[in-house]
Design goal:
The chain has one domain. The model has no long low-confidence stretch (mean pLDDT 82). It starts with a helix and ends with a helix. The chain has 108 residues and is mainly α. It is 73% helix and 0% strand. The longest helix is centred in the middle third of the chain and has 20 residues.
């Protein structure tokens, strides 16, 4: 059924093909489109990413994350208050900011 419809459409458009004069309209539209993102913005994002990775490495980020997760699970197992350590709030805030920045840069 679809093949038949496709053939009918192709035959129709082949028989009724119209050439419309462009007169440079497409070129004018392309010239008036907004410019792409400034390369400096992308370089700044790459620099911030690199700085974040370096700071994460220098501050033993994985060790801190593992230790915080372990503390959270221990508190859950012991039914104590969750995230009573202020450092846990800092970790949660950093992760939240990283997710927000990631979302902002993903809309390029």
């Amino acid at each position: 059924m679809m093949e038949k419809d496709d053939k009918i459409l192709k035959d129709f458009f082949a028989a009724n093909k119209l050439d419309i004069a462009d007169n440079g309209f497409s070129d004018k539209v392309m010239k008036n489109l907004p410019q792409r993102a400034n390369p400096l913005v992308k370089m700044w994002g790459a620099f911030i990413l690199l700085a974040t990775i370096i700071i994460f490495y220098l501050c033993d980020g994985w060790l801190t994350i593992i230790q915080t997760l372990r503390d959270i699970f221990v508190n859950i197992a012991q039914k104590q208050d969750l995230m009573t350590d202020p450092f846990s709030y800092i970790i949660a805030a950093v992760v939240l900011v990283a997710v927000i920045i990631n979302r902002l840069y993903s809309y390029d």
